[in-house]
Amino acid sequence: MAYTLLGSLTSPFVRRVRLAMDNIPYDFKELNIYDNAEGAAYLHKINPVHQIPVLIDGEKSIWDSRVILQYLNEKHKLETQSWEKENLLTAIDGAINSGVVLFLSKRSGLSIDEPTMYFQRQRDRLESIMDYLKPHLQSPAAKEWNFVNMSLYAMIDWLSTRSMMNFSGRPECHHFLETHSQRPVVQLTQIPKT
After folding, report:
1. What is the Cα–Cα distance from 87 to 81, expressed in whole angstroms?
2. pTM
3. What distance separates the 2 farthest-apart alpha carbons in the chain?
4. Among 3, 2, 102, 112, which Cα is nearest to 53's?
């Protein structure tokens, strides 16, 4: 039986799982959890955390993209993570989380450009994380196609597409995206332009 992956076409958390599952058969079920009461209710029934992605494997539902990767790695021996890679993934998760906070706040009509402490902390966190990730982005390791770089690609592309961070002064990010943008799975999982 194939897996079912629940998520949206725009979520960077969902996208990185889709990138990692490139060679694993699965059915993708798109859920609109913000604008569709039915999608939100369905997610609520299967995931008390109310977040995507969710991987369904028979009677099991696995939540959170990092846990999904661990689960798939156990079953398919995809790739193990060193502590250094785990730190990179934690930083990437932090950047995505800050970006999502800013995005949902803006979408809720809040002015995220105001110098309020909460929004400033999210912007500062994004800059700090990008500074931390810069040596990795400039290293030969950035050319590899592994879960860290899949996550990094999903993060940078999402933050850029959603205008949650300005990358004009970060050429290493542009180069990184260019390096991986022609991969078939990257093309297949592109964020819709709507």
Report:
1. 10
2. 0.92
3. 51
4. 3
Instruction: Report d(CA 194, CA 23) in Å as an integer.
Output: 28
Residue boundaries of the structural domains of the chain: 3-76, 83-183
Summarize pLDDT for 73-121 with one digit per residue, the tens. 999 988 888 899 999 999 999 999 999 999 999 999 999 998 899 999 9
In CATH terms, 3-76 corresponds, of 2.40.128.50, 3.40.50.960, 3.40.30.10, 3.40.1190.20, to 3.40.30.10
Helix (H) or strand (E) holding 122: helix 117-137
Domain range 83-183, CATH architecture:
Up-down Bundle (1.20)
DSSP letter for 191, please: P
